[in-house]
Prior knowledge:
By secondary structure, the chain is mainly alpha-helical. The chain has helices spanning 12-15, 25-38, 40-44, 48-84, 89-100, 107-121, 125-129, 132-145, 162-178, 229-238, 272-281, 286-296; strands at 7-10, 20-24, 207-210, 242-243, 252-256, 259-263. The longest helix is centred in the first third of the chain and has 37 residues, at 48-84.
Amino acid sequence: MGYGTAAWYQSIHKYGYAWGICLGEKLVRKIALEIATIEGNRITNLPNECVVVQLIAAATFCLYLHERFHHRVESFAIRTQIVDGRPCYLPYMRSVYRFAKLTDDLIEEALAEAESIREISNMGRFRDALHPIVLKSTIEYLKKAIPLGPPGYRRGLSYTQDKKMESGLGFLWSQMRGLSPKPTQPSDEWVLLGRIHDALLECRHDIWIVKNGRHSVFPLEDSQPTCSSDDLKELLLRHGYHTISEPNDPIQRLKKNKKEVDIHPGYKRVPHGVLKNVLRAVANDPHLERELHDLAGI
Ligand SMILES: [Zn+2]
């Protein structure tokens, strides 16, 4: 199975500036097709140019909303760390998430699935963006697909009601704060704090599409400025930066005077979050900045 067949969240804790939501294009296409076949004839009656964009948007929303929930979980963990003064996210991943992985005790994945269907079903921008027929098909698709998911994920429909979601979130927050699959802090205590898991950063600008071939179903995807990671490193070295990380580190840190930048050689093309950070760092170096603009096509 390739990366194009999956979707995942790259956490700030592990990936730094390369954090974000990754959507495999092959998976987006597969879900779009499944949504299309739910209401078959009625969807094919819509104008062609409308239906393709709508189905791709609907499939993208399903995946995006699930992955955005993981960013919200990390946002909660960062707030908790500030209050409690000790790390929360990585210890939670080790002691609760991985411990419960591929079992129905993994509540984070169930809540991520619930978030997806709740956001699309409830009034709001995701619902408003979809044609009523496509919207109905998408909700039907999620109702059928979620119970067929892996353990943990397949319990998503148990949390679609407001009260169930609220108590599910409370339980997850208690697990995270207590770093235990069986927390002692009562779940209902969290209700008083309201939306403690609102996203700390704007995810919409940190979505990466993982392509399977040269042609993308996302028309804007190719217009984002970027360049090859090797070319970027070569440019920085030529302008006086030197490497301060170990040769095999997945994130390579380069330094010049007091400026430090991170690059990710694992990505052939520089993710735009990483490029934004490098551009910020070289802003006081006009020659380098101009060459980087040329390199990235800005
Ligand atoms: Zn997930």
